[in-house]
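Quick look at the format.
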Amino acid sequence: MLVKRYKRCPKCGSENSDTAKFCLKCGASLQNVEVFTDLPGANIFETSIDLTDTPTITAGKIPDGFVLAASVEVIGAGENYTEAWKTLMRNLKSILNIKGLDGVANYQVLLSPFQTSAAETKLTLMLYADGILSMKHKNKNPQKSDEKEGAL
């Protein structure tokens, strides 16, 4: 799976190459524009979670318009990479929904074989990230969501 890196034009919103100096659509300067990195597969697997907005997922710093709200740790395991990734994404979307977060930034994904029994080894992916909250949703309270999670 390839990681998608791009710059979003601050004037027209178009995605451009991560090395672009000017927007291909409107010509605006992209000299000091942040490079975004999308987590591969974040939106390709179906889940049973109904999120009204697509979560913001970036390996880069917290995007403008978002604030740090919580730390996020998620594990996904499976017989192969695809199955582990699918589980990781389902779990990530669940955690974002439970904690009332709009996405993650500064993520790292670690790969590790996990021995589930003497005869079986599963591939395990571990994601560590900063949970972020959109300024337009700032009135949400992630702490209340954490309390609900502990009560489950």
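Next, a different chain entirely:
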Amino acid sequence: MSWGRWTFVAFGLLVLCCLLACTSASGEPAPSAPTPTYSSSLRPVIVAARVRVSLPEQERPHLLDDALFTSLTGYRTLDYFSTRRALAGGAHEVILPQWVVDNRGTFIAFEGLATASEIGGSVWLIRHGRRRMARTMNAVSIGLGVQAVVHNYTEPLTSLH
């Protein structure tokens, strides 16, 4: 099996996205700069009482959200296998460019990045208080994806007969 250059590029982008997601979701507060205790003409010392500001609690994904994420991953996996089966039977890809689905590594990387971006966008919406929008987006995506998978599996195979 020959691994193409684009396979490694796509895999590298997937790893980069995962690393960026892990570092941005660490939840650690930014380090504060030390305040000087001396006065100068350029930077006078202003003494103010520290006020505790209570920020709203960030929401976390619930069990239903985890089930939706699992469903997203499952239908994306089924989409990959059903598309490969339909292509082997003589069908042509309608939505994606043909060069993406012809190369297995590129197609796997595309499906992985699409899954990661859907889940990442959903988590971002949840953390910003838009849980209903995130769940609606996931449900619509799952519905359309399952419809495509069913179409791929019910499409008659022409070259295997």
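The longest helix spans residues 63-88.

See the schema section for token definitions.
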